[in-house]
Every structure is written in C-alpha cells, then in structure tokens.
Amino acid sequence: MATSSRPEQPPRSPGGGSSSAPLLAESVLGGKADPGTSTIPAAGPGTEPAGLDETTQALAPAVGPWADSLGRAGSRAAQTLLVATVVVGLVWVLLQVKVVVIAAMVALILASAVGPVVKWLERKGWSNLLATLAAFLGILLLLGGVITGIVLTVISQWETLTAQASEGWNELRRLVESTPLPVDTASVDAAVRQGTEFVTSGSFAGSALSGLSAAATFVTGLVLMIVILFFFLKDAEKMWNFTLRWFRGERRAKLAESIDRGAQVLGGYVRGTAFVALIDAVFIGVGLVIVGVPLALPLAVLVFVTAFIPVVGATLAGVIAALVALVTNGPTEALIVVGIIVLVNQIEGNILQPVIMGRTLSLHALMVLLALTVGTLVGGIFGAILAVPYTAVAWAVIQIWSNGYQIGDDPVLGPDPVNPGDRVDAKATMSERWKYQRMRYQQAFGGRLGATERDAARQGDDDRS
Q1: From CA 303, how far away is CA 313, in angstroms rounded?
Q2: Distance between CA atoms of 281 and 304, rounded to whole angstroms?
Q3: Residue 340's CB: how many other CB atoms inside 10 A?
C-alpha cells in the first residue's frame, strides 16, 4: 500500500480548535501566557489544543452579580444585618431572664472581690470548704449589716428628707426667679405638677400594687445571687479548669488570660469603689455635721450608695445635700456644702482614685458615660452599677484577643493615646505570663497533654481489639 508523503494532522474536534488558540487568547486578553503556570491543557498526542472560546473562559476571571464593588458592599451589609439580628435576638433572650443574668453578674463581681480572701485562707492551711464558708458568711454579714443600716436610717427619716428636699427645690426656684436669668419657670412648674398628679392618680396606685411583684422578683434574684456566689467561691477553679480543657495552645492561653484579667478588673473595681465611697461618705458626713445640716447621717449613707454609680452618683448626692442645707440653714450654708462636696470630689478624682484603684478600669471618661447610659436604659439601677466594670472587662478581653493595635509613638500620628500602664499585657504577673507561655507551647515542647474524648474512645477501641 502506498503511503502519503503529507504529515499526519492531529484529529480535529467538532469545536474546530486551532493550535494558535493560546496566542489568540493572549492577544485578546492583553496578557502573556506563562508556560510554567498556565492552567490551559497542553496539547499532546491524541488531544487537540483548546479553542479560542475555551481558552478565553479559562483565563478570564469569573464575573458575577456580587463581584463588583456594589455587590461586595451588599454582601457586607447582609452580613452586618445578620450579625445585628443575632445580637438583638441574644439581648432579647437575656432580657427575658434578666433576673438570672443580673444575679449571676452580681455574684461574679462579688466573687471576684472576695476570691483572693478564699485563696489566702487556703494558703494558711484551711480547707477549700471551710475557707469558702468563712468568706461567704463574712461577705453576707457585711452586706447584710450595711443594707440593714442604710434601710433603717433612711426609713426613719425618709419623710423629713423628702419634704426638705422638695422645699429646697422650691426655695431654689424662688431664688432663680429673683435673678435676671431667662428661666422658663412655667415649664418647670408644669413638669412638677404632672409628676404630682401621677403620684396621686390611680395609675400610680396600680404601679404600687405591681411593686409587690417587683419585690418578689427582687427576693428571688437575691436568693439566686447568694447561691451562685457560694458556688463561684467554692468551685471557681474547677469551672475555669473545665472551660479551658475545651481549647488548646494559643486559644487556651488567651482564654486563661481573659479570665484572669476579668477577675482582676471586677475585684479591683468593687474593692476600690467601696473604699472610696466610704471615705467620701465620712468626709461629706463630717462636713455636714460641722455646718449644722440636719439629716447628716442619711445624707452620708446616700453618698456612699450613689458612689457606686460613676460620674453622676456623687453629683446627685451633692445636689440633694445642698437642697437640704438650703431649706434648713440658708443659702450661705448651702454654698458651703457645695464647696465641701466639690472639694471631696476633687480629692477623690485626683488622689483617691489613682492611688486606690490605680488603672483598674483603663476607660476614657466618654466610654464610662456611654456605658453608664446604656446600662441604665437596659437594666435600671443595677445596669447603671454593673455597666462600667463589665465594659472595662470587655475592653481588656478585646486587647487580649486582638493584636493589630500599633504600640508606641508614630512619626505621623504622634504619641500613643494608650498609656503603657493601661495595656492589658502590663497587668499580668510574671507567674501568669509563664503560665500562658506553658499553655501555648505545651505540646510543641513535648509536654504531656491529655487526649480528647474522641481520642480516648479510639484508644479504648484499639486496646479491646
């Protein structure tokens, strides 16, 4: 049989591909193909090089309705709405069990304040149960005595206190009217009249009747808080040990540091605030006695209680004390009381807070005010008391889990707005830092690490087989 002298042509597919397709694709797409990295199938024996359409689809990026800038913005907006929906739903669920949440938060903050006492007693040789009972009964007696004293003191002179505060308000209004200041006293009188009408109306009576339910809820929350506080004091280390065993390496170390810093912030806040509040109450109470203002003891108690509400608490107590002094002693004594309160607040802000509390909160004044406002709107008086310390805990946890913040001065931005002493890494002791490092590199350095339940079950199956 005669053979043809023409070279054999590779079989052509119905798509009509051409060996010049890669060059055409390069010219169409404006790029150059890299033989070493191209994803186009190479032509070989029995195969045909890809055609122009196939090559263009392989090289061109996929373009969809979500690939442009508007699509990316829409996807981010959808993600943001989804996260916001989850957060709102979680907040709604927590509000439905607000009694349980507040009881747990109060118990946690008290346990953080008393926990060092339990550890100190254990180092002295006490058993865990005995140390827990001693600290638990001690804090209950202390809180019970303080609350009982406050209630009895205030109740015995409450009517006189409210009457004189109201009369002081009226006296202040008369003094303002006698000045040339453009104050709309008619609006103020209308607001006072509306409040008076509400108090004397049936709706207020209904609210008072519903107060029985509120009292029952308060007692329930109080009992629940006491029970939770006992278990926090007794089994706190077991709880944290149980939690940390679900994590490994870096996550375990960061979670352990978050727990330590949170307990440090909460405990330092409670102990420092209580001591500062006691000093404020003593100084202001002594000043009221010297000036000759009646009801000095209830006013001092009021100063102590409101000192746990940052920013506005001391101001509120000072206003009430000044109004009582105005109606009972006159404008001169009222001004002296205002001067005493301003002086005590300055001593507190410039001396007591830095020395006693140090850098426990590490929050800007604006953040404190915003946290206080949100806490009051969500949780009332308890929200106002708990919002600031838990915001400080959240800020500490954010610093632990994020590492993108630039530390130190910048040639363009200028000085670092965060004081080095306020950074969370500056508040850990050497032993704590060593503990975190051991958690990070426990497996890498050959340290013994227990198996998970799945590994243990697999090992048991292997042993039985």
Answers
A1: 8
A2: 5
A3: 22
The pLDDT of residue 177: 63
Q: How far apart are CA 315 and CA 326, in angstroms?
A: 16
Model confidence at 10: pLDDT above 70: no
DSSP state of 31: S
Residue 293 burial (C-beta neighbours within 10 Å; 0-12, 13-18, 19+):
buried
> What DSSP letter does each residue of 152-176 carry, written as one string?
HHHHHTHHHHHHHHHHHHHHHHHHH
- In order, the DSSP letters of 394-462 are HHHHHHHH---PPPS-BTTTBS-SS-GGGSGGGGS-HHHHHHHHHHHTTTTTT---PPPHHHHHHHHHH
Q: Could you tell me which residues are beta bridge partners of residue 410? A: 414
Residue 109 has pLDDT above 70, yes or no: yes
210-233 burial, b at 16+ Cβ within 10 Å, e below that, comes to eeeeeeeeeeebeebbbebbbebb
Measured distance CA(233)–CA(119) in Å, rounded: 10
Q: 126 near 287, Cβ under 8 Å?
A: no
Token pair belonging to 447: 């340290």
Tell me: the pLDDT tens digits for 366-424? 888 898 888 888 878 888 889 989 999 999 999 999 888 888 899 999 998 888 877 88
Cα 234 versus chain centre, distance = 25
Q: For residue range 351-369, what is the model confidence (pLDDT) as tens digits?
A: 777 777 766 777 887 888 8
Where does the pLDDT of residue 175 fall: very low under 50, low under 70, confident under 90, or very high at 90 and above? low
- Please choose, from the candidates 414, 429, 365, 415, the residue with its C-alpha nearest in 3D space to the C-alpha of residue 392: 365
